[in-house]
Amino acid sequence: MPKSESTDSDVARKQQGRKILRALKKKYPVAECSLTHDNSFQLLVAVILSAQCTDARVNMVVPKLFDKFPTPEALAGASQKQVEKIIHSLGFFRAKATNLRGMAKALVEEHDGEVPQTLDELTALPGVGRKTANVVLGNAFDIPSGFVVDTHVKRISRLLGLTKKTNPDQIERDLTRLLPKSSWIETPHRLIFLGREICIARRPQCAECPLLKCCDRTGLPPLN
Are 84 and 91 contacting, i.e. CB atoms less than 8 angstroms apart? Predict the structure, then answer.
């Protein structure tokens, strides 16, 4: 019986995925979270703050926040005004302050002040979605719970032809189906590095890209 078209397509995409992983690892051998943190709680705070904001800007703010409120207990006891004042420059500061205080309170009341290590428990916390939970589980606990899909990963995975989806959850399902679980934690970092340095949204440097030979360049004009 002949293989189905979808099966053949998946096999081809998995082969392409392995080439992409090798090229990315060669270009970026060290792939670590760029958000400043010393523990799982600090990472959780930093990721919540990084929504609609650059990691670099978050890293300018969190040292003062962590110095003032180093533990879930301390942050849970902070006033809204105190937190807003520190994170004001990050944008959406009111909502983020509310989420941070709510998250810290939930950690204290429901988890003995410890960051939980399951996707369901994390996403039940205020301000924590699937992406944030995946970042924390992968980078704080080395648990490959899923594939982090930020704006860079979303755009580049479509350019590469690994997905045609636009919804982050659907993109994550495609990527976790095509790429080995052992790559789920580090690869998003490498794709983010690529997106910042080479595969820039409005001016991709395709001729300099280590993935050029295995990239479909979906939606881009032909190279000269």
Answer: no
Say which residues have a Cβ less than 8 Å from residue 70's Cβ, sequence separation at least 6: none
State the catalytic residues: 131, 150
Question: Alpha helix locations (H) across the chain?
Answer: 5-27, 40-49, 55-68, 72-76, 80-87, 93-111, 119-123, 130-141, 151-160, 168-178, 186-197
> Can you read off the two tokens belonging to residue 44?
């959780």
What is the average pLDDT score of the chain? 95
Q: Per-residue confidence at 224, pLDDT binned at 50, 70, 90? A: confident
Residue 151: which of 70, 20, 14, 53 has the closest Cα? 53
Model confidence at 179: pLDDT above 70: yes
Token pair belonging to 93: 């500061």
Interatomic CA distance for residues 134 and 37, integer angstroms: 16
The answer to whether the beta carbons of residues 146 and 184 sit under 8 Å apart is yes
**pTM value surpassing 0.85:** yes
Largest CA distance in the chain: 67
Q: Would the pLDDT of 1 be above 50?
A: no
